[in-house]
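Bumping my old thread because nobody answered last time. Still need a sequence for this structure:
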């Protein structure tokens, strides 16, 4: 005969982890370096499997593989600053779609690329994964 185990699921209802708002995202840390091959179409891809933010409701972590693909105009993204920028999302409560769009907006603002695409593949939660793709194309650029 199996023993019955009592479960008190109510204890989970009030659990929340500390969640930071968007002001914790270090936009100002992003830096660029001059691109020496202006006019030469070069596609740069920056992948990372270390991106995390948190669910704005529960504070539970969201993990994503991020790919930043861009064609530089006059600037390249400085990698150390990008690493710090992406890491600053670690405790920010933000929806996956919003995080992906914000990354694109901030990088476009700083680097002024001819073209940029951010692809985010978010780990499954409850059996559902999310893939978010956002793009920017500078007016007049046909690449």
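Sorry it took so long. Here it is:
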């Amino acid at each position: 005969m199996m023993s019955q185990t009592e479960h008190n699921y109510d204890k989970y209802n009030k659990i929340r982890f500390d969640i930071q708002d968007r002001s914790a995202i270090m936009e100002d840390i992003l830096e660029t370096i001059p691109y020496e091959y202006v006019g030469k179409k070069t596609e740069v891809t920056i992948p990372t499997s270390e991106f995390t933010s948190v669910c704005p409701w529960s504070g539970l972590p969201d993990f994503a593989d991020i790919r930043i693909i861009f064609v530089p105009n006059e600037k390249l993204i400085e990698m150390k600053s990008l690493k710090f920028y992406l890491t600053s999302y670690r405790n920010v409560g933000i929806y996956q779609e919003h995080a992906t769009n914000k990354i694109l907006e901030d990088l476009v603002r700083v680097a002024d690329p001819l073209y940029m695409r951010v692809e985010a593949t978010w780990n499954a939660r409850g059996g559902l994964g999310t893939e978010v793709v956002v793009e920017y194309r500078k007016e007049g650029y046909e690449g």
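The chain has a mean pLDDT of 93. Let me know if any region looks off to you.
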